[in-house]
Amino acid sequence: MSFFGKLKNRLFKSSSKLDEGLDAIVQDGGEEAAAEVDVQEAVAAIEETRVEAAEVASEPAPEVAPEPEAVPEPAKEPVTDPAPAPVVAPEPQASEAEEPAEVEAELVRSSDPLEDVVAASPETESKPGLLGRILGRGGEETETRRVLDDDMLESLEELLIQSDMGVDTALRVSANIAEGRMGKRLSVSEIKALLAAEVARIMEPVAKPLPLYPTKPQVVLVVGVNGSGKTTTIGKLASQFRAAGKKVVIAAGDTFRAAAVEQLQVWGDRAGVPVLTAPEGSDPASLAFDALSKAQEDGADLLMIDTAGRLQNRQDLMEELAKIVRVIRKKDPEAPHNTLLVLDATTGQNAVTQVDVFRKISDVSGLVMTKLDGTARGGVLVSLADKFGLPIHAIGVGEQIDDLAPFDPEEFAAALTGLEQS
Ligand SMILES: Nc1nc2c(ncn2[C@@H]2O[C@H](COP(=O)(O)OP(=O)(O)OP(=O)(O)O)[C@@H](O)[C@H]2O)c(=O)[nH]1
């Protein structure tokens, strides 16, 4: 099964919620009618603005930090269970001195895990978009269609709010769908296509792989509330970076809970990556300092530091994170190079609050959204992208080591809205 198919299956709860809602809206007062809106044209127009946005986003950043390096070629085979679509890490990319500092680690996947894992080109706009391909099949002429009026628009807004898109985003998306289409008859599949195109447009600017720097070791601080999936995500990322030829070290910085350390050790073993630990209750900043020293001595490429997630004691957590940063900066003034916030999609709009809070207590540079499989709350990603514009580096779609996917806005939008691919 293609990766899109898997993602769609895993986002089934989100898409079926939208599906059922849209069905109910259109059936309510709808009747068999021919198409009145050229959805292909509308989606093509939205895609065009997306491509423009993507081009602007991919322009080199002006400020120059460390120089980029050539990133090793991804492993040709997944390290573990070959069945799931693998997300492998960095894309090989030669550098030139005057190129921007940052090399984006292209988290790529194979549509068929048995095929070679081919690094995706960042210029995704050069191939026809997924939505375009889906719509290119030609639609059914007569479907149940309902005239788009204020009542229907309101129902659509409500449905999107219920899907965790957040009020502001839901209103904006509905308004964009309605623009120029009031009084026209729309079918469920037409609304889905327009919705998917709008979602993809919002998500495009935030779909950015974890940036890789030539700095060795690159320090990645991982933050998030307890249970959000930090440990699992660190394990998955470690496995993928290792598969791409990177030397990785993990620091078990949640010294407050022995179980958290043990769990991280299990993930480290799975990924084949060393995990540095300290006794329960010891100072996480001191562990982080030792881990950075070790990573430097060993010539590691990446150091991932797990942290505690006790948000209920926000002041303590803030001080703990600030101390970790202060202490590791004694060894590397630029560290941490990334601060990843791990969020649990099943918490819906609560994830928005978490971003707000963690941005206040740490310098969040990007997001990983976990547990998108089996939740009906996938819409929260749209809300996060629209509200904060923080990069979404990857999405967690299961509990296995390979269940971390790069974030692809079109696939996500199509899966979220339940668009059918032939
Ligand atoms: N279905 C699903 N489960 C996930 C995913 N990511 C993590 N989990 C599960 O979520 C639970 C919590 O994950 P952890 O990685 O332990 O979360 P944590 O943030 O480290 O939590 P603490 O150790 O309590 O700080 C575990 O049961 C994981 O298996 C995902 O993408 N999908």
Write the layout of secondary structure elements.
Blueprint: H1 3-10, H2 12-27, E1 31-33, H3 39-57, E2 87-88, E3 103-104, E4 108-109, H4 130-135, E5 143-147, H5 150-162, H6 167-178, E6 185-187, H7 188-203, E7 211-212, E8 218-223, H8 230-243, E9 248-251, H9 258-271, E10 275-276, H10 284-298, E11 302-306, H11 314-328, E12 338-344, H12 350-361, E13 366-370, H13 380-388, E14 392-396, E15 404-406, H14 409-417
Parallel strand pairs: 8-11, 8-12, 9-10, 9-11, 12-13, 13-14
Antiparallel strand pairs: 1-5, 2-4, 3-7, 5-6, 14-15
Helix pairs in contact: 1-14, 2-5, 3-7, 5-6, 6-7, 7-14, 8-9, 10-11
The site of guanosine-5'-triphosphate has 21 residues, from helix 8 and helix 9.
